[in-house]
Design goal:
Chain lengths: 91, 311
Amino acid sequence: MRKQYVISIKEKTNISCYEDETLLNALYRNNMQDIVFGCFGGGCGRCLIRVEKGVYEIIRRMSKEHINKESDDKLLACCVQPRSNMEISIL
Amino acid sequence: MAIKGVLRASMMQIRVLNMEDSVKFYRDILGLEEVCRTTDGKVCMKGYDEFDHHTFTLRLADKPGLDFLAFKVSCPDALNEIEEKTKEFGLPYEVIAANTDQPGYGKRLAVQLPTGHRIDLFAEVEMAENHPDLHNPDIWPGGKQPKGCGATMVDHALLFGPNSAEAVRYMKEVLGLGVAEVAKTPDGEGDACTWLTGSNRPHDVAVLEFDQPGKIHHLAFKLNSWTEVGRAADILTINNVMIDAGPMRHGITRGYTLYFFDPSGNRCELFAGGYAYYPDMPVRVWDFDQLGKGIFYYDRKLKENYLEVIT
């Protein structure tokens, strides 16, 4: 069975995200209106989030124009998969 | 040959964040052929209906976008004339020697547009090894069906940048491109977007006024028909590619179209049809408040974020 985690969106709601999908994909499936659905490829920088809590994996490169250091807590939701329950803020 | 000077937007180089994912996308899903790889790791590709050595180059970089869009010119004399006129016009350019960064290509002029984009011009290029049949031709080279969506050739790009009026003036006055259509600014005084063409396509390049330089909205490949656009949407969906808009029709150009994103977030278009442009045709004009219908002809309104999501 596909493993899934709870993603708490700060001051919003909770959604579930499968381990093998990106945070943006889960937001898209849940029809979240608070985030911009852009290129889904790490290029356009529209799905910027901040990770408040939780463990994650960056599964693809993000454009340097939008993310300077992958160690930052600011990430593109289209490039991140959860490895634990997470809390995020949509920027 | 009645068509002379700049013939078409025939080649481009884009930046990608992951080379192998991008090659799989453009080769296996869009259906381009991988022609060769350069010593510095670029991958050169082409559509099945193109004669030129290669027409689409991928370069690994830390941000996506367009390195340059290249126009093919009818002959070396026409290229020399463009060089002289470019000098007079006053845009910076450099000459790239034959067979350097792009295998098989002759001398190119690399011109820096005031929008922050580079456009290249060339007259000579080797013929591709795998080109369309020339004797009792089948519809596909050697009768072999292209992969995936079966993109036939590079078609056009939509550039976003500042000083678009000056870039359009260069492309009209120096490159001799015709203006097929314009969309006016909200006050109706200027042009927000201009669609330009070298020969019979309804557009080879479009330029939209934008505050950030050097951006692209999309790069486009050609398909043969509305049926192929629908089939392409099926193939993209089966391969879990994010579709941005369509299949649908444009009012501007009247083309059948489908937008989606490559693995690095570059927006791509598969485009079919559209009217045949001739240089005696007057400019078709769109009011700013009709741009929704111009782009999304059936919905008659702009999709949210369509003009904001760019690379």
